[in-house]
Model the fold of this input.
Amino acid sequence: MARLEDKRTSVAASPPRVWALLSHRAGESSQILALAEALAWPYERKVMHYRWSAGAIGLIRVSASAGVAARSRAELEPPWPDLLITSGLRNEPVARWIAAESGGATRVVFIGRTWAPVEHFDLLVTTPQYRVTPAPRVLENSTTLQAVTVEKLKRAESEWHSRLANLPRPHIGVIVGGNSGPYTLGANGGRRLAAEVSRYAQKLNGSLLVTTSSRTSKEAVAEIESNLTGNYDFFPWRKNTPNPYFAYLASADELVVTGDSIAMLSEACATCKPVSVYDLGRATLAMRHERGRREKPGDWLRQDDFRLSAMTYWLLMKIGPRRLSRELRIVYERLLAEGRMGWFAEPPPAGPVPPLADVERTVARVSAMMSERHCDRD
Done:
């Protein structure tokens, strides 16, 4: 036992070389960075630019760097990392290529789901919507990895204090996403959302703190801004612009999150405040679908906004391989059972909101994996 403890101490004294290979998707990159920061080891950010063929290379499940554009190749040179953290279809073949180039010395932690068999990676950190088959190298968490901390919330609240200080309480934070899989948020949905959260805030004599995301369509943003009433602060997402998102999380007494993004929902749950999910679906296509009720193609006519790709995705979920789609309702059911969320306009879960431990679980798993690797090398 003493020898094992000595080895773990030596890992801490001489931390592993870590690369955070970022994704072209902001949500995936935020999870990569959340884990890299939580591990508390020095790490290097690797930002890739891709060729048009990068996605196809990922789909055919090969180990290759051919999808990386020439201007990014200089980022992929020895010395190779001891630990590589990454996510996304375009990065999957690159991660496997780095592991091979290192002679198997690089440990790869992949976040989300993979196209190649899990055995090609050292650890897959996933969430229920992907329906990954349990395996020794799979760690399934209830929520996605996120970097919400008490210190970050306090700092953001202080920075934006003057903007929010005069709004009457309670503050209801409203975090708005966009189109995702079979769910659509267009102009009609944006109008409905604005009207319903406005009525809710006025009923409580409180204020809304509303922000959109990079996936919110221009039409939805315009309708939300036009139809908010009462006391509110509205911030439409803009690229490379300081955003009060974390200040909203910090200042809110409760949070409403559109149900299209498990990442946004996870960040809301990390605050340990009451969280409710705003249902973007209608009828039997609602996010809070009741078991035993059959979904019908005609229900698409009852949605706020029709999107052909959403209907195609729904059909894919019904008749296609499971690996080609996500089922977000599995996550909702788990978080409801854990008392972490409720549905908008319904009574919230009773009792205090339990804190999340998914980041800590993942850090412990990765730390143990790297400690075992160090012992093996010695």
About this structure: Residues 150-355 form a domain with the Rossmann fold fold (CATH 3.40.50). Confidence is low (pLDDT under 50) at residues 1-11.
